Amino acid sequence: MINTASKYLNRELSWLEFNQRVLDEARDESIPLLERLKFLAITASNLDEFSMVRVGGLQMLSEQGDTKTDPAGMTPDQQLERISNRTHQMTIDQYTCLLAELDPGLKDAGIKRVHPADLGDRQMQFLESLFDDELHSVLTPMSVASDDDFPLLFNRTLNVCVQLKPAPGADEQPRFAVIPFGRSANRLITLPSDGGYDYILLEEAVAIFIERFFPGEPVVECVPFRITRNADLSVREDQASDLLAQMVEALDARRVGDCVRLEISDRVTTNMRKFLQMALDVQDQSVYAVPGPLDLSAFFQITNLQGFDELKYKPWPPKPPATIDPALSMFEVIANDDVLLYHPYDSFDPVVRLIEEAADDPDVLAIKQTLYRTTKNSPVVKALMKAAQNGKYVSVIVELKARFDEQQNIEQAKALEKAGGQVIYGVRGLKTHSKICVIVRREPQGIQRYVHFGTGNYNESTARLYSDASYMTCDEELGADAISFFNAVTGFSQPQRLRKLEAAPIGLREKLLEMIETETHRKRQGQNAAIMAKFNSLVDSKIIDALYEASQAGVPIKLNVRGICCLRPAVPGLSDNIEVISIIDRFLEHSRIFYFFHGGDELVFISSADWMPRNLDRRVELLIPIENRSCAGRLISILELYFNDTVKARRLLADGSYEPVQSKRNQAPVRSQEALYRQTLETVKQADQSRRTMFEPHHAPSNQN
To answer: Between vectors from CA 408 to CA 403 and to CA 414, what angle results, nearest 5°?
Structure first.
């Protein structure tokens, strides 16, 4: 009998293994140097969010004395200990990657981080002028007489702690001061150079001239530090009309949350470390003394340097989809046939164009849309504002609780309201994570509804970096479902039974379980069965148990899980028939695609939802059937290609670790993302050739008589 706790992997440790796979890309010598630096910066940014949300939440449970165990059988305290051990090791690996691998390689390639001792005369003169003209005036030292006197420091900002020599007759009591850098400080200072790109870190430049902040006071020590605060927001939603005000209050609270991590230079003395720990109320396991620059996410700035193309990936620009005739309007295209796009290989432009055309089209009556994460100057938001100004009925669900995008969403919601749109600030008690746009258009045959469903956000920037699916259709039943879905969400009414769609938190989990159980039943009846699925995270224990049961019945199950996976594959008697892979490559794998053999009548779905309790129980999500056989066939081939990857795929083992997927003998290596891009290029090439052929003049055959 298998122990219940041993059936599941711990959620937090599984996430850390995902971040390790990202770090492995930073250490991969076959990847261009600036791309490796970008992966390293991503691991640092990921750890920031993990610390703020997951560690912050566990620390709150620990402080409350909570001893409940997670499905893997671990209490909050046990999880915090394991997380601390794993994260400290990961931090060591991060700095080994930067200092021993990336810094030397970048220096040889002409990108040099200059240390104070290596500054040339011209560079020192430049820094001195910069300090006198700007830094000395902008930065403000703040003396700290006691712990209670410690200044309020913003989350994830860099600071310098300075120890001054004790004042005469002060019983040798150390004196401290803090210099906050703030959010707008330019962390990387470009230096004069005779070639290539030289830069110095802001904290090192400040340290050179630190005594000028304290004239007449000998400086004993000057050390940079950085704090990460608990950002596990709690928003009271007992009054939906007050949600906007509640979110603003919560954002303010995030800025002053408890410190859950202290990063500091390993040059720090014991005296200063104790002072900072006491002032910030940080335990030893939450202190990270590092041998290099703090906040590795700041190196994103370098990865976009111009003139170093040989240190970057060769561009893979998105291509105009072969299925879309640029001479036709998007309404004509969709009316002719359903459209499936797979970003970033297929351009996101048709999605934007659909909404922009709707804004100007006199026959369009209404646009209903969800917005979760968008860009600052989003063309989608601009099109919605224009549509409202043109007198169309525009109704938008703006999710204020999209973590770390809350402030931008608040601003965009206000702009939409000002333009005349109807804005719904999310749903009380839930997070609206579905990606849907419905356009209602008057046509000669009557009212027609055009619908866009997506697995990713209405964000043209991330659509160039994330793999996601878009499905555009004017299917009558899907259109009716889409309107019913919107009305149920915006009107807080009891949702009616949908014809084809399934929505969380009502129905989606049950549909997934039903599909898994159907495959199990068919296999037990001696029929063929199979499950393939691709998503970001697998945490839900009910789904996992159903997959275990299907495996025990003999159903072959292939799962492509980019991040967290709490299922243990390849356990004898439990999950022998389950294979789990994860792919980390130049594009972030973000699409959710589900396939069920279903007795040969293959069923294919796309979704906004991962298989996690939060998605299935606490979010508004959608599951969309792809019944168009051409579109479904393309999604099946995409799934199969991922499972053939032998370059970037990693296989999950029963103990929670991962191993590279090896090519079979005499099999050429397969890199799924590269193969998808090449397929897109070939399809576009064939479509262009076909269109050119259509317009070539046709000559009658010559008369030989």
So the answer is: 125
Predicted pLDDT of residue 385: 93
- Bridge-based pairing of strands 578-583 and 557-561 is parallel
Query: Which architecture characterizes domain 5-311 according to CATH?
Result: 2-Layer Sandwich (3.30)
Phi (first) and psi of residue 318, to 5 degrees:
-60, 150
DSSP state of 98: I
Domain with CATH 3.30.870.10 in the chain: 330-500, 504-691
Supply the pTM of this predicted model. 0.91
Residue 90 corresponds to which tokens in the numbers above?
A: 């990961």
Is 590 a known active-site residue?
no
Q: What is the DSSP letter of 53?
A: I
Q: How many Å apart are CA 257 and CA 18, to the nearest integer? A: 27
How sure is the predictor about 513, in pLDDT bands with cuts at 50, 70 and 90?
very high
Q: How many CA atoms lie within 13 A of 699 on its CB side?
A: 3
Asked if 278 and 255 count as a contact pair (C-beta separation under 8 A), the reply is no
> What is the DSSP code (8-state) at residue 354?
H
Q: Which pLDDT tens digit goes with each residue over 325-357?
A: 999 999 999 999 999 999 999 999 999 999 999
Identity of the amino acid at 494: Q
- The span from the CA of 635 to the CA of 453, in Å, is 15
Q: Catalytic residue among 115, 343, 433, 698, which?
A: 433
pLDDT (tens digit per residue) in 407-460? 666 778 788 888 888 888 767 778 888 999 999 999 999 999 999 999 999 999
Q: How confident is the model at residue 390 (pLDDT cuts 50, 70, 90)?
A: very high
Alpha carbons 669 and 643: distance in angstroms, whole number: 12
Domain 330-500 -> CATH class: alpha beta
Amino acid at the residue 609: A
**How would you classify the pairing of strands 531-535 and 557-561?**
parallel
Quote the longest CA-to-CA distance of the chain.
122
Rg (CA), the chain: 28
Rounded CA-CA distance 508/503 in Å is 5
Q: Which two tokens stand for residue 225?
A: 């530090």
CATH 3.30.1840.10 placement within the chain: 5-311
Which H/E stretch holds residue 493?
A: none
